Give the backbone structure.
Amino acid sequence: MNKYAKSIKKKLNQSIQKLVWNREDYVYDPIRDFTRNRKISLRTLIELLITMGAGSQNKEILEFFKFDVSLPTASALIQQHNKLKPSGLLFVLQEFVKSFTKQKKYRGYRLLAVDGSKVPIFRVPHNSETFAIMNQYDTGCNFLHVNALYDICNKLYLDATIQAYRVYNEFRGLIEMVGRSPLINKVILIADRGYESYNNIAHLEQKGWKYVIRVKAKNGGRGILSKTDLPVGKEFDEIVSVLMTRRNTNEIKSKPKLYRFLASHSTFDFLPKGSKGTYRVTFRVVGIKISEDKFQYLITNLDESFTLEDLKYLYHKRWGIMLISA
């Protein structure tokens, strides 16, 4: 093992040890869980979960314990796993990420990307929240949906949310990760159209983060730009400012470019249902020409020191997991 790989493994071991020292905060029964001397200790459980591949539990256990005749059973693994709160694994990840003190940045900013993907799991057809048949030839499979937050410059995953595939909500997944992130400022979040939402913009502004989000074109359906009078078919860089409201008076109806009416089922955390107030959302919109007759549209709260060319650069670099040509 080379020097760099050894240093990474040392950081991971230290992060796991911190979890062991703080065991009581991350188990369901602090008095009894992981207090007895068992084959699968808390440290062993974390190491096993991190190194498990795509094989069956029995196969992964065999390989992890090097085919020891006294190896634990799959049932023992499940019993030990059920003692650990999900926050325990998140703690290990966050401690591991914090151990990298020398961080590369883009113009002084941590450059983060967020995206989601479905992940197949073991087949349980009766689980309606995870089971899906993808096409007429498919017998069906169970999936989870993972939202991941990724530090592009440092090649580090910072956080993730896991949701059942049939009920996943990428908006809520992003808000959850932003809310618990220890990063306060000098962050640029890059996201694709799946995260196009006034509520997401408001949460990012409240956090103090900058953002670059690809959005639908003005004529692309019910997107953020659908009620604007922005240009079509050419490059531009303009400011849009709207007032979010839950009222639907004649005045509001008469000014569709200024107000954005929120129906009772619409999620906007800063205007509870029944609210009589308004909430202003302001952002830059840039239209970028990517081919002879094709344009992409980005919204951002970066100031004019980030020129149109800078935003083009971010787009064409395809940094992170987003900004894929439609």
